[in-house]
Amino acid sequence: MRKVEDLLETAGEYLYQVFDYASAIRVYQEIIDIDGNRYEGWWGLVRSYTEDFERTSCGPELFKLVSECKDRAVFLAEGETKRILESEWQEYLHIIDRYAAA
User: Fold this and answer.
1) Which long-range contacts (CB under 8 A, 24 or more apart) does 72-81 make?
2) Which of 45, 63, 65, 84 ranks highest by number of CB atoms within 10 Å?
3) Side-chain half-sphere exposure of 73, counting CA atoms within 13 A
4) Rounded Cα gap, residues 67 and 46, in angstroms
5) For the whole model, what pTM was predicted?
6) Which of 1-22 are b and which e, b meaning 16 or more Cβ less than 10 Å from the residue's Cβ?
7) CA–CA distance from 87 to each of 13, 17, 27 (Å)?
């Protein structure tokens, strides 16, 4: 499905090159609307909402949304990818905990 691949590229540019998280969220949501069974769309939302894991605080509603996106991404991912996503999430949780404790 070429459209999804093109959208993943566009979302990645917003996320990793211009740091336009709102635009990245919009494109990742479009990817999910087209094919909700692609873990990349859900994980892209996680990375975008957390500003690529640099956001150290968020309210309970946003954290719940991000956690749900993470759960969906991990559920859809397979093999080593599933382990990598879980590991990245755990690292992020440790960062949040350190900032909360400071």
Assistant:
1) 72/39, 72/42, 73/39, 73/40, 73/42, 73/43, 73/46, 74/39, 75/39, 76/37, 76/38, 76/39, 76/42, 77/39, 77/43, 81/39
2) 45
3) 26
4) 8
5) 0.93
6) eeebeebbebbbebbeeeeebe
7) 23, 23, 25
Q: Is the pLDDT of residue 1 over 60?
A: no
Residues 4, 16: Cα–Cα separation, whole Å: 18
Average pLDDT over residues 37-61: 95
Task: Return d(Cα 78, Cα 62) in angstroms, integer.
Answer: 26
Rounded distance, CA 23 to CA 26, Å? 5
The reported pLDDT for the residue numbered 102 is 67
Residue pointed to by tokens 């994980």: 43
SS (HEC) of 16-43: HHCCCHHHHHHHHHHHHHHCCCCHHHHH
Instruction: Please give the residue that has the higher pLDDT: either 101 or 44.
Output: 44
